[in-house]
Design goal:
single chain, alpha/beta, Rossmann fold, 8-stranded mixed sheet, 8 strands, about 35% helix
């Protein structure tokens, strides 16, 4: 939607842009043809037109079953709550009207849920590097208070402290340099802002741990040890760090002090 694109454009930091954004596809494109080609099997899948077409109905539910996750609608509700969107947040009177960044948004399912939880001049930026995924996002999840951006999450094109909430669900184990991406997410998180992550976790017991690691390596996935992500957040000074483990997945959320 044009209003979403305009909102995303207004948030861009000109000093961090390597090219003029192109909006011909219905989202802002900062990568053009100069982006890195996907290297692993898992990364190539996310840039595949067929996978993008079946992602919501078949691909993600199947992958969620492998990780031991529940229904996606439940994940969306949990993410909205963790980010403090859609009204009173933990009884502190804050409302869901801020700026939200959805990193590796895929076809925009969570982006849409966040946008629908916002009020007033709130805006969600759904960011991904995959053209097929963003094409689905524009086709299926273009709603008020949402705009989409094709960019490299390792070099977010936003100024420091630009967002009141940052989310990355089901992607850190796919992307190149996940800790660089996480550092960028923390850089753009404003004081008082919240971050919500859903990522993989390495099993703690053998032989499941070894088998899981081998399977992940074959597909180009990363399994995070139980304290890897929480340690990064703690070192960055975040507080109210919460972690929930389920199957081969972990949900982590935290708050930057105001």
């Amino acid at each position: 939607m044009t209003s979403g694109i305009a909102g995303v454009r207004a948030l861009l930091d000109p000093s961090r842009l390597e090219r003029e954004p192109d909006d011909a596809a219905g989202y802002l494109d900062l990568l053009g043809d100069a982006d890195d080609r996907p290297r692993t099997l898992a990364q190539r899948a996310m840039h595949n037109n067929f996978v993008a077409a079946i992602y919501q109905r078949w691909w993600r539910p199947s992958f969620a079953a492998v990780l031991g996750l529940g229904p996606q609608d439940e994940e969306k509700r949990d993410a909205v709550r963790a980010l403090g969107l859609g009204g009173d947040r933990d009884g502190d009177g804050e409302q869901g009207h801020g700026r939200v960044l959805d990193v590796a948004c895929g076809p925009g399912n969570f982006t849409r849920a966040f946008a629908e939880a916002l009020t007033g001049d709130g805006l969600v930026v759904g960011l991904d590097a995959s053209r097929p995924m963003l094409a689905r996002a524009v086709a299926d999840n273009a709603v008020p208070r949402a705009g989409y951006l094709r960019a490299d999450a390792r070099r977010l094109p936003f100024a420091d402290a630009s967002f009141d909430a940052v989310c990355c669900y089901a992607a850190l184990y796919l992307v190149p340099e996940p800790f660089t991406v996480l550092a960028e997410m923390l850089r753009v998180l404003a004081p008082g802002g919240r971050i919500a992550l859903m990522a993989s976790r390495r099993p703690s017991t053998e032989p499941i741990r070894t088998a899981g690691t081998l399977l992940a390596d074959l597909n180009g996935l990363r399994l995070f040890d139980g304290d890897e992500l929480t340690a990064v957040l703690r070192t960055a000074g975040l507080v109210d760090i919460r972690q929930r483990l389920t199957g081969l997945a972990q949900f982590v959320n935290a708050r930057r002090p105001g």
